[in-house]
Design brief:
This protein has four domains: 42 residues, no CATH class; 101 residues, no CATH class; 90 residues; 169 residues, no CATH class. Helix content is 49%, strand content 10%. It has 19 helices and eight strands. A five-stranded mixed sheet has the order 6-5-4-7-8. A three-stranded antiparallel sheet has the order 1-2-3, covered by helices on one side. Strand 4 and strand 5 form a beta hairpin. It comes from Clupea harengus. Its main location: nucleus.
């Protein structure tokens, strides 16, 4: 007769055989040799289910507090001493002074043991501090079990025993997460409209995740919260992504509050947002990066980059080259910077490689003439750089710098960026217009980049949304070209509609008992207040 399974973990798994169990959520088979549940509980953690955290009360003092004035999820932390709820009956901490034991109290092994133990309130406070140290400092869980960490905590308080890595990963951090999640849900309940950003990424272990971040305003302050980073085990088709986003939004009661969603330019994201009926605003920084990568398709740029890249790779590979380059930098008074190698999937890496090459060109040329490097370079048949390569580098940097600066401008979470898209596109259109004095190299770069950018943001709904965002941004008010009058009309209608929703309630409050309204002067004051 099989042994009865008493662990709560089996509520989420179905036994497949004596050594394996299948997850009821993702249908993944997990090893559970001999009924062992450790692997099963670790797998449940990927679904944000923590069974050990249910009985943890360390973070209960953080519940039902006012939302922290945070601008990003990274700044959500444990409160300081002034933020914590005070215990109405704080437990008195025994002192280490033997004089505290009066003649009225008998010294027994039990009283000595009680004196040696820290009060529960103090232990929980120290546990919160250790958890905050690990989480906010991005330390590994094994830190709390290292010899030097234990030695430090013992020196600070010999009576305190820090939590183990198992306590951190399965109890304390999940309990903190649960409390903070409820606080976020409570704060988002007061939000009327919000926007989201969504992106998928793959870890080093080849596990795919989807992250959803919500953006909203509270008391005229922009805030962001990372709602979830969810592990996914299905092929990321558009409909699957839509279901994953929906489940996260429903969990935080945001499904009906989303105005727009910002995603990358992947086709599955396009299908997902169409299924969700959200307005898609493509990530502008990603769009600029896609346009910048188009220069790799220019033959002249590809051959020129290959010569630069070969020199950069050789300098980074040789230890002697690094030493010689640093000597030449000191002699020429140049910054002690290393050369940069471009990576095609990394944003702006080609621009940064060429910019650093320009900065260090005198030192690179001097190093290549040094006797310690000349023979190895000739042996490797490394092609020497010429003045023409330097001129092309100058042209490339002057042409692409505005694109790089634009990427930095819109990569901000502390200020609104949607209203910047149209003004920046107008600026880029003028900048990338081919001029008569441009060389063939510069003309090819300009045509390739703007040829890709001009195809973006052509949808009518997206255009209207961006126009309204630009007009509402005081930095660009009055600078928008095009159908400005239509955009102002749309904004006026929205403003009137929102005011109309409030007028009936105020009319009821300002009406006399006999049904007569206030005089004209009172009505005028009422509209001014609105």
């Amino acid at each position: 007769m099989p042994k009865a399974k008493r662990s709560k973990v089996w509520l989420y798994f179905s036994p497949k055989d004596s050594n394996n169990a299948k997850c009821n959520k993702c249908n993944k088979v997990i090893a559970s040799k001999g009924g062992n549940t450790s692997n099963l509980m670790k797998h449940l953690a990927t679904h944000k289910i923590y069974l050990k955290a249910e009985a943890c009360t360390v973070f209960d003092c953080l519940r039902e507090r006012e939302p922290m004035p945070s601008t990003s999820v990274g700044s959500v932390g444990l409160p300081g001493p002034s933020d914590r709820e005070t215990d109405p009956n704080p437990e008195k901490v025994d002192t280490d002074d033997d004089s505290s034991l009066t003649s009225a109290s008998t010294v027994t092994p039990f009283t000595l043991a009680k004196k040696a133990n820290l009060p529960k309130v103090k232990v929980e406070e120290l546990h919160r501090s250790v958890t905050r140290f690990v989480v906010m400092g991005l330390h590994s869980f094994s830190t709390v079990e290292s010899k030097w960490f234990r030695e430090m905590t013992t020196a600070l308080n010999p009576r305190y025993r820090p939590p183990s890595r198992d306590d951190l990963s399965n109890t304390l951090i999940p309990a903190w997460y649960s409390v903070e999640k409820q606080n976020v849900i409570q704060e988002l309940a007061q939000v009327k409209k919000a926007a989201i950003t969504c992106d998928g990424w793959t870890s080093v272990a080849q596990e795919h995740y989807v992250t959803v971040t919500v953006h909203y305003t509270s008391h005229s302050v922009i805030k962001q919260k990372v709602l979830n980073t969810k592990a996914v085990y299905e092929s990321q088709t558009g409909l699957v992504v839509a279901d994953e986003i929906t489940s996260i939004l429903v969990e935080f009661s945001l499904k009906t509050k989303v105005v727009a969603a910002t995603v990358d330019n992947a086709s599955n994201m396009d299908v997902a947002l169409k299924a969700l009926k959200f307005l898609k605003v493509g990530c502008f920084a990603h769009t600029l990066n896609l346009a910048a990568q188009k220069v790799y398709g220019i033959t002249a740029v590809t051959k020129w980059c290959a010569r630069l890249r070969a020199v950069v790779v050789w300098l980074k590979r040789s230890t002697m080259a690094k030493t010689v380059l640093q000597e030449k930098q000191r002699l020429l008074g140049l910054p002690d910077h290393s050369v940069i190698l471009d990576v095609r999937t990394r944003w702006n890496s080609l621009f940064l490689m060429v910019e650093r090459f320009l900065e260090q060109y005198p030192a690179i040329q001097a190093a290549s003439l040094d006797q310690r490097l000349r023979k190895p370079m000739e042996k490797d048949r490394l092609e020497r750089l010429t003045a023409d390569d330097f001129e092309k580098a100058e042209e490339f940097v002057n042409t692409m710098r505005l694109l790089y600066t634009s990427t930095l401008c819109v990569s901000s979470e502390r200020s609104p960026t949607c209203g910047q898209i149209l003004p920046i596109l107008n600026k880029l259109e003028v900048h990338f217009k081919v001029a008569e004095e441009d060389t063939a190299f510069t003309s090819a770069v300009k045509e390739k980049v703007w040829g890709d950018l001009k195809k973006r943001y052509q949808d009518e709904n997206v255009q209207n949304f961006l126009q309204e965002a630009t007009l509402m941004d005081p930095r660009f008010k009055g600078r928008l070209v095009g159908a400005v009058a239509d955009a102002w009309d749309r904004l006026e209608k929205v403003a009137v509609a929102s005011l109309t929703e409030e007028l009936p309630m105020e009319g009821i409050q300002d009406t006399d008992e006999d049904g007569s309204d206030d005089n004209d002067e009172d009505k005028a004051e009422k509209h001014v207040n609105i």
